[in-house]
Amino acid sequence: PYCCSNSEIIAAFASFPKTTFIWKYEEENDAILFEKYPNIYTMKWVPQTDLLADHRLSLFITHAGMNSVLEAVFAGKPMVAIPLFVDQILNAKNMQSRGLGIMIDKHDLNRDSLIAAIRATLPVNSTYARKAAGVAKYLHGRPAAARAEISHWVKLVAEEGLLDHLVMRSREMSFITYYCIDIMVYLAIQYIIILFLLFKTVKFVFAQICRLMKLKAE
Questions:
Q1: Residue 161, in any domain of the structure
Q2: For a 10 Å CB count at each end of the chain, is N or C smaller?
Q3: Do 119 and 175 lie in a common domain?
């Protein structure tokens, strides 16, 4: 799927001899390619969420599937995304636009582009790492904030009674009004009328043309 060989990816990883890379492989032959590189560990299966939660992990290189991106964001890890398909491309672009990592187009993937992306995102004090950690901190803080908010509203209702101004007006709407059925029926009728008039117009014009052709023939 890439426009570069595995050897270029290996060469990129080998450029960081003091950094340990964990490679999840699909085919047995893939594992053999990395045997000569002590800083690259190959695994057939990786407990991804556990690995992302490990404080020793500094960077996540991914295809940017939705689950993988969400897990990395929640774990506070910056990413280098190499998307292959449409949804992955969108996920990677969203991730990059929020400063959580770098996206590499699969057609631009080579040793140099991968090295540059890793160098920019790997340091623990990089802007990407700091941004990822900040987003994770916010996400981890939400449950406590949610409980505090629930407690706040329960106490307020107990003290003030029913808070009518917070009740959505849609509760008072009928089924037809809520789902805009009356509007859809009106538009459907207008559409039918337009089609009917168009049909009649075409029929009239066609009849006139046929009449003129008949008169010329006579």
A1: no
A2: C
A3: no
